[in-house]
Design brief:
Layout lengths: L1 H19 L11 E3 L8 H4 L3 E7 L5 E5 L5 H7 L22 E5 L13 H5 L3 E8 L5 E6 L4 H7 L22 E5 L7 E8 L5 E6 L4 H7 L23 E4 L7 E8 L5 E6 L4 H7 L23 E4 L17 E2 L5 H4 L7 H14 L16 H7 L3 E2 L1
Parallel strand pairs: 2-4, 5-7, 8-10, 11-13, 14-15
Antiparallel strand pairs: 1-4, 2-3, 5-6, 8-9, 11-12
Amino acid sequence: MKKYIGYGIILIGLIGFYFFNQPQEKEEPFLYQAYAIENTETFEDEINIYYAEIKGEVRFPGVYKIGEDEILKQLIDKAGGLTENADMSGINQAQLVVKNSLYIIPKVFKEEFKPPVTSTTMTEKTKVYVDLKGEVINPGVYLVEEGSRILDVIELAGGLTVKADISNLNRSDLVHDGMMIIIPSLPDEESMYAYIGGAVINPGYYELEIDSLLSDLIIEAGGITETADMTMINLNQKISNGNVIVIPEIVIVPKIYVSIKGAVLNPDVYYVDQDISIIELINLAGGLTPEANPSLIDYEQILVMGSIVNIPGYQTDDYLPIDNQNDLVNINTASLEELQTLKGIGEILGQRIIDYRIEYGYFTSIEDIMLVSGIKDSIYEQIKDYITV
């Protein structure tokens, strides 16, 4: 009997030695692996209910029922949530759960010794998953480096669409693993803004309905002013959002009095636009007479208030110069060139003498020339012996 008891003890010892010396299963660094579940073709499978197992750093590891479109975050919640030691740096909780799969939530690896930083370790970056939706060219889930920003993910997605509304989006924000970004669409336009300036009563920005016309914008601005030039304005022009419209004003040209004499049909004093040309003035005076000499006309003469234009004619054989009282200059009839022959009288004072004649009439005596601005006693004493009326 003792012999059999001894054999039993030896057998138990061998079994214990074999059991305790089996190698312990080491957790692999992967997230999940598929495994077989017997009798999967059940009634539950027909109603889209499956199973998945979750282990590792969750509060209640085990096998749980999952729905057709269930994500990993929901499976973790069924398992009581994560423990304090869960390492989620490489896990995308937004991914769909695969039926009949095993998910292992790893534990944070705490290093007591940190190796020296090298150029290789500095360049290595963790990858994270980001789900980008909405108004981008290619929405989807993107794997980007940790530390990337929203604008980097948008660029990977081909950029924004024309309907993207980024008014409340900070594109410089950092992304994190499992982040979902939704780019909203611009609201449907029901109104627009346009600016109108220039010759309107109240220039400024105005809100208009879509498909408004320029006439509507002018009405909003209180109408046009009296100086508005509408010759080139199309009141039926359609207004677009952001348009800038300027209504021009009529250009008012100052008027002047000029005198034209000589070989024209109607010599006279004319009230004309300041920018009138010599040719236009000649036409206004009826044109040249047959005696006019066009080659001697100064077409470059600049006209100002009180200018006198003399149109010369051809000299004839019977022309005799009029005796002008011993060659004295008649200050009532002398041209600008003749007045400038007097000592101290230049172009400016000569033109003032002509302007005075046009405004006040002929001088009654030579002393009256001192009524012209700029001609005083000193100049009068120099010219009194050379002028007449």
